[in-house]
Amino acid sequence: MNIKYNSPVILTFSILSTILFFINNFLGGILNSYLILSPNFDPSSISQYISLFTYTLGHANLQHLFGNLSLMLVVGPIIEEKYGSSKLIIMMMLTALFTAIMQITFFSEGLLGASGIVFMLIILASFSNSNQGGIPLTFILVLIFYVGNEIVGSFSNDNISQFAHIAGGLFGSIFGFAIKK
Q: Domain 8-178 is classified in which CATH homologous superfamily?
């Protein structure tokens, strides 16, 4: 029996996030300009353009990292198998970029973590066994429970970007209806 690298995008993202977390912590935050999306975007800074995508690899602490990666590793391989690695990379990048642009446009806080991508995956998973031509009931329920919880949570002051979660859910919905295997 051998171990298979069964979900290359999800596994690579998870491993890279974990390695970067420990390297960044060991080196005292030297990678923060790449792993945190600054609320004050500087168009002359190359690192800030890179961070429009790489903030998803950064995490505030082990609980944040393990929380995101636990859900990603459960749901992600299902999505990667259904849509393929190439489409998944594109979906992850579009979700990250849109969330980043909205964050720096409308909010005054920085952003880090893969929560938006995780929410995209959760919403996409609700489409995993649906047939064309209908709206899956699982999609409606997941939308109510996950996104509804984020809307309610957005009224609390908890250093969690509910907007990123909602944006991920929005993109998961769009991809679920628009992209066919």
A: Rhomboid-like (1.20.1540.10)
